[in-house]
Structure formats: structure tokens, C-alpha cells
């Protein structure tokens, strides 16, 4: 990236600041476009760890004039800006569609109208667009469309079943699995990915979509109840409160270190064969949510057991783990940060921060009041 001018939308956020750090170290000229959303930046200021060598443009991706200024002289665009959070998206519908789908459309419109020539456009997609991950039926065939019915969930039967009521077996999810988003956030991320790849192909903009699984690491917003589950659990524990776990805690997720994510973002620019593709970026390993809470408690040295609520949130899925075979072959991507190493990094960082303001119960109560937690 040395000598290249790079724009990172959402570059003052969690993943964005890690990427900007790495780009500056590699000798790139980096410009950050970020609206400093108060949900992520409560004081309205960029984080202290955003490198001073990066140019910061405070503004909104949806504003064409701001975009034109931010795109001036740029060769590479990383589009990370988005509103995140499955639960919140189910009641802030218009906000999520506007912040994610419309914002991406505005970026693409300016690229097309102004005939901006890019070496690469890399967009941050999400594992949420799959809905449930891949499952096999008892006969070994892939299950076509997996949804847990409301009646099943009301009986607290958490595991997905086939049409005959037989249990399904979760497997790592490949990119060709049918997309079946189950939340407003997931729908907007599917729009975001498809728009970018479609317009990229039509106008010759070399585009790559990376489907990130559950990213964790230092710098996650500990006081944001819509951030990643590891940051949410850490915030609860640091406030001497038990992590709140939905269902029975047996949900399996794929947690990938932000350091590995940054490596994947670099590879997406370096590898020509990645152009026009959507690739899973995860660890390829499944871990139960309750195990995450217990491990964080142990590493933090805070002896508080999680509280398993036995309730479910509308839009949640049961299991989804990344099949990273395509990322290995196309990008040469291989995760290098073990979960234990990554958790130690996260905990060391959280312990160095001031005590976060825990807003999880406020968020949980709102979902209950809206009928989105049952």
C-alpha cells in the first residue's frame, strides 16, 4: 500500500482504527470519513488511538459533497461505515436502511457519476446475511431453508429441526449457501454487498466483499449495547454484573480477531483473483456463547456466572460458523490469532479502560417492551 491514497469509511470505529493503523505503518496516505456517531463516540470526538497521520473528514457517507471531497485522489476505498446491531435494527428500521443500504448506494452513485478510477473497492459484508448457517438433515443432505418457528421457540426447543421434526446438524457455512437474512440489519448488509458487487461488475470497479463473522478485540465500544458480544459481556463483568445470555447459551458462533480481519482486508487489495467475489472471513472454529462468557469471567478474574435468561430475541439465529476454504484459496488467508491469545489481548485492553457505562439491561428492557424478546 506504500504510496497509495486510501479512504476508509467508518475509519474511526473499531475495525476501522485497526485498519488505519496498519495502513499508516505500511506507508499509505490514509483518509478517514466518519460521522462520529454518538452511539459509538459518546463525546463526539474521534478516539485517541486514531493515528494523527491519518486525515479525518467528519461527515456522512450519504452526503455527495462530503463524498467527493473524501474521494479526491483516492486509489483504494474500504467501505466499513454501517449501523450495527441486530436487535436495534428491528425497531430502528428506517435508520438502518438509510445508514447501510442508502449510504452504500450513494457511495456507488458518486463513483459512477464522477468516473472515479479505483484500484480496489472493498466492502464489509456480514455473516448475518446467511441467517442460519449450513445444516445437514439426518440423511446427510443439506437442509434447504432453516427457520425456527415461533411455536417451537415458545416451547424453548432451541435446536433447528427438519420438516419431520428430526434434529439438524450444524456445519461450517460456505459462501454458496442460500442467503436468508432474519433481521433488518442482515437485510441491509445483503443489499450493501449485492449493490457493490453488481455495480462493480457493471462499471469495471474492482470490488471485493468480505463476509465478516464475529469480530472481537481491543477498541470495541464497551458502553455500546449493540456492539459485539465479547465487548458486551466484558462491560457487564467490569460492572460486577452477570452477562445476560439468551436461549440456553448453546448457540455457536465463529469469533475472529480484529488482527486477522485487518490481514484479510489487505489481502483483498493485493489478490487480483479476489475481484468480484464474496468471501467468508472467520476463524473456522465454533464456540458456544456460554463458553465465551465463562472464559471471559475466568480471564478477567471476576467470579460471576452468566445469567441464562431462557428467552429468545426475534431475528436471532442458532448456529453459524465460517467455512473459510475459499478465503484460503483465493486470498491465502489463514487466521493466526488463537481464541485464548485474542481474549488475553481484549481483557488487557478492557482492564486499562475506565469503567464502562453498562446499558445492556436498558436495551434488553426495550426489546421486551416491543415484543422482540419473548
- CATH top level class name: Alpha Beta
**Radius of gyration, CA atoms, in whole angstroms:** 20 Å
Percent helix range: 25-40%
Q: Count helical runs.
A: 12
Total strand segments:
15
Name of the CATH superfamily:
NAD(P)-binding Rossmann-like Domain
Classify the fold: give the CATH topology. Answer: Rossmann fold
Architecture overview:
- The chain is of the alpha/beta class.
- Helix 1 crosses helix 8 (258-270), helix 4 (93-113) runs parallel beside helix 6 (184-203) and helix 9 packs across helix 11.
- The strands form 5 sheets. Strands 3-2-1-4-5-8-13 form a 7-stranded parallel sheet, sandwiched between helices. Strands 6-7 form a two-stranded antiparallel sheet.
- The protein has a single domain (82-365), classed as NAD(P)-binding Rossmann-like Domain (Rossmann fold, 3-Layer(aba) Sandwich).
- Strand 1, helix 1 and strand 2 form a beta-alpha-beta unit.
- It contains 12 helices and 15 strands.
- The longest helix is centred in the N-terminal third of the chain and has 21 residues, at 93-113.
- The mean pLDDT is 93.
- The chain is globular and about 55 Å long.
Brief overview, please?
It is globular, with a radius of gyration of 20 Å.
What is this structure's SSE topology?
Elements lengths: L4 E5 L4 H12 L3 E6 L20 E4 L5 H8 L4 E4 L6 H4 L3 H21 L6 E7 L7 E3 L13 H5 L14 E3 L12 H20 L3 E6 L1 E3 L12 H10 L5 E2 L6 E2 L1 E3 H13 L7 E4 L5 E2 H12 L6 E2 L16 H7 L7 H13 L8 H10 L5
Parallel strand pairs: 1-2, 1-4, 2-3, 4-5, 5-8, 8-13, 9-12, 10-15
Antiparallel strand pairs: 6-7, 11-14
